[in-house]
Design goal:
single chain, alpha/beta, 27% helix, 3 helices, three-stranded parallel sheet, five-stranded mixed sheet, disordered N terminus
Length: 131
């Protein structure tokens, strides 16, 4: 898990260099657990984020900025989904079928486009940074 977090931090630190290289784009970092213990820790992290944000439902969208669009679909028991968008012109969806899924889609900057689909007993996080 430490390796995954370190990878995410290193990738995020390269964003300013990438932003200077072109006039638009996005960088995505997806993290998926490799075993049951990592999945449990990721689910705990999503639950703690939801608690901190005062989210009391299994699906939630928070959008700070302008021109953002988001959608959630959950079919089945024990699904948890969070879309948190900051900035402008983001599009994000999470679709969860069957049950026991947990997903977080976090988008920052402008002009990102992210979609997550889970089909049962899956866990994952996606961080996107756009310019």
């Amino acid at each position: 898990m430490k390796t995954l977090i370190l990878s995410a931090v290193l990738a995020a630190s390269m964003i300013p260099a990438a932003a200077q290289a072109g006039a638009g784009g996005q960088v995505s970092i997806s993290v998926q657990p490799q075993n049951a213990q990592e999945a449990q820790m990721m689910r705990l992290g999503l639950a703690l984020f939801a608690l901190h944000q005062d989210i009391d439902a299994n699906g939630h969208v928070t959008q700070n900025g302008i021109g953002n669009a988001a959608g959630l679909y959950q079919g089945g028991p024990n699904n948890q989904a969070i879309i948190h968008q900051e900035g402008c012109n983001h599009t994000g969806t999470i679709s969860q079928h069957n049950g026991n899924n947990a997903a977080g889609l976090f988008q920052f900057g402008c002009n990102t486009n992210g979609h997550i689909a889970q089909n049962g007993n899956q866990t994952g996080l996606t961080f996107q940074f756009g310019w």
